[in-house]
Specification:
Blueprint: H1 4-11, H2 15-23, E1 31-32, E2 38-39, H3 42-57, H4 61-67, H5 75-105, H6 113-118, H7 126-138, H8 141-151, H9 158-164, H10 172-183, H11 186-194, H12 209-223, H13 226-236
Helix pairs in contact: 7-12, 8-11, 10-13
């Protein structure tokens, strides 16, 4: 009745698609006319339209092949597809909510939106911000929230500004004085109140305390020079 090109035109698809359906076994080969050309009938058109409709809904060709020819209403497959679509919509809605928060508050994208919003006004150095980003990957969510709360409204003390520019060859006295000044900062009181035990920051880390500690050590060795690291040791000693 119809040639391959006519079938494709009626179904709103392409010759290549019809041939692909044949190749993967989704569409039976039609009879041929005396001249050797294929002759498609109504069942072929219905089959192509069904395949096209199911793929438009989101089923893969493999899933359609598994359904066979007889299942005109593949309820189970469609229910499963509906659940997948619902999960996708939920994920996309969460993404949109995060995007709205990021765009509204102009928060950094490398941090969870709630954490980024909490520390939005904190005057962190690039090193401290990078440190916080890594912590966000290591700490338990409730611990991370407590940590972020200590940074809320954080402004860099003159001692911190000096620390940020401390040269690697800073002398012993300079390091000791700076450590004492940093230890006395109000921010340190907040940190000690939030985490009386220094190890409490990592106590419930999802991948374990040792993993969190070892990662933080590597990060600090990269972010801070030897003099800065020495000051941090003295400050927390």
């Amino acid at each position: 009745m119809w040639s391959t090109s006519q079938l494709a035109d009626l179904a709103g698809t392409t010759l290549r698609t019809i041939r692909h359906y044949h190749d993967v076994g989704l569409l039976a080969e039609p009879d041929r006319r005396p001249n050797g050309y294929k002759s498609y009938g109504v069942p072929h058109l219905v089959r192509v339209l069904r395949i096209k409709r199911l793929t438009d809904l989101g089923l893969s060709l493999t899933q359609i092949a598994d359904l066979g020819d007889g299942d005109e209403h593949p309820g189970e497959a469609l229910r499963q597809l509906d659940a997948e679509v619902a999960a996708t919509i939920e994920r996309l809605q969460r993404v949109r909510a995060e995007l709205a928060l990021i765009l509204h508050q102009e928060t950094p994208t490398e941090l969870p939106p709630d954490i980024a919003a909490t520390i939005a006004d904190a005057d962190l150095s690039p090193q401290d911000r990078s440190f916080t980003v890594v912590l966000a990957q290591l700490l338990a969510p409730d611990t991370l929230i407590r940590y972020a709360e200590t940074l809320k409204g954080y402004s860099r003390d003159p001692a911190v500004v000096e620390f940020d520019t401390l040269p690697e060859d800073a002398d012993e006295q300079t390091r000791q004085n700076l450590a004492e000044r940093m230890r006395a900062m109000p921010y340190m009181d907040e940190m000690r109140a939030a985490f009386p035990d220094p190890n409490g920051l990592y106590s419930n880390a999802p991948r374990g305390v040792e993993h969190a500690k070892q990662t933080i050590i590597k990060v600090m060795l990269e972010l801070y020079n030897k003099a800065q690291l020495d000051v941090l040791v003295r400050m927390n000693g």
